[in-house]
Amino acid sequence: MFHQLLSLILLTAPHAISACQSHVSKPPLLWLADLRAGSAHIDSDVTPSLGEAPGRRLIRFEEGATPIPVSLDEKLELEKSGLRYFDVTEVDVEVVFRERIANDRSSLANRAIPSAPTHQAQVKPVIATLSQANLKTDLAELTSYKTRYYKSATGASSANALLAKLQTIASSAPGTGGAVSVSSFAHTWGMPSIIAKIAGTNASGAITIVGAHLDSINQANPASGVSAGADDNGSGCVNLIEAFRKLVAAGFKPTNPVEFHWYSGEEAGLLGSAAVSTSYSKANKAINAYMNLDMTAWLQTGTTPQIGFVSDRTNAGLTTFTKKLVPEYLSGVIATTDSCGYACSDHASWNSLGYAAVYPFESITQYENPNIHTATDTSTSVQFSFAHAHEFTKLVVAFLMELAL
Ligand code: BES
Ligand code: ZN
C-alpha cells in the first residue's frame, strides 16, 4: 500500500540534520523522518505526561516507545504524510503498561474460544433477514457529509445522526424491555464515538464487542478536503448498523452482553478506540472478544471474493474460530490471511490492552482499495460491492451470536 511505501522513503531518508535544530523550520517530511529516527529536537520544557500542554499531542511510532510531544500543526503534517503513529495523549500510559505486564487477558479469552460454531439453529434465521438494500441506504446517509473528519462539524453531525438512528432502532425493539441501549462516548475533540449495547441475561458476563471507525479523512487536506469514506470505513459502519437492527428486531437475548462501537478519530491515530478501550480496562470490564470491521466493500474485478483475516495484533485462536464461520454462514467467499504489519486499525487498541481481537478485511493487500483517504473513496466505483459487504454483516451476526448466546 502507498502508506507503507511512503514510510519506507521516510525511514531510509538520510538523517543528517543536527539533533537540536528546531524541526518546525524544516520541510515537513524531513522532521518527520527525524521523529521516526528518534533524533528530532524535543522541547525540554514539555514533559511527555498526560493532559499537559494544551495544543500539544503525544504520539509514538511503535507500541512501547517513549511518547513524543508534537504541536497540532505538526500532527496535521503527520496525518498528511501517511506516516503511521499512535496518538497516546488520551491514553493512561500507566494503565496500558500495567495491563501489558499482567498480560493474562488473552489467555482468559483463549480458554473461552469455542472450537467450532454450534448455534446454527438460531444464527441462520437472523442471517436470512439481513438486507443488502439497507447497507446502501445507510451508506448513502453516511457519505452525504462532506467529511467525517474527527475534528469537523460534519463529522460530529454524522455521529449525532447515527446516535439518533440507533435510538430509533432500539426503541422499536419488540420486548427487549430496556435491554437495548444507545449512548455517545464524548472525547476531548468534537466528534463522539457511539456505543450500542444489548444486555446479557448474565449482566456481568464478558462482553463481546464489534467495532468500526466512523471518521474519515482526506489525507491531502484533512481539515477541509472532501472525504466520503465509503469503503474506509462507511462500509464497516453500515455492517454494524444492519447487524444491530436485525438482532434487535429478532429480539436477540444473549447470555452475555454484546456491544457495537462506532469510533471517532481512528484516522488520527486510533484515538476513539484508545479512549474507549482504556476506559473499559480501567473499569475492569470483562471482555470476551473484539472484532474489527474496517473496509468491507472493495472487490477487485476478476478476483475470487475473499476475507483476509489480519494476522498481526490479533488473537490467533479467535481468528481460527472466526474463519470457521465463513464456510458455515457466508456464501461465495473464502477465508484467507492478510497482514497489516503495523497498528493499522482499532483492533490494535484492544490488542495492546491484552484483549482478544480479530480483524476480517475486504481482501488481501494486493487487491485492496487504492482510493482510500482521497475524495474518490465513494460507492460509485464498479469495484465497490454491496454484495461483498453483505457477507460481512453475516459474519458480524454469526460472531456475536456464537460467542454471546
Ligand atoms: N482502514 C485503514 C487501514 C487499512 C488500510 C487496513 C488498507 C488495510 C488496508 C485505516 O483507516 C487507516 O487508514 N489506518 C492508518 C493508521 C492509523 C493509525 C492512522 C493507516 O493505515 O495509515
Ligand atoms: Zn483509513
TrEMBL record:
Domain Peptidase M28, chain residue ranges per copy: 194-391
MF GO annotations: aminopeptidase activity; metal ion binding; metalloexopeptidase activity
Annotated source species: Serendipita vermifera MAFF 305830
Lineage: superkingdom: Eukaryota
N-terminal signal peptide: 1-19
Protein name: Peptide hydrolase
GO BP of this protein: proteolysis
Enzyme Commission identifier(s): 3.4.-.-
Taxonomic path: Eukaryota, Fungi, Dikarya, Basidiomycota, Agaricomycotina
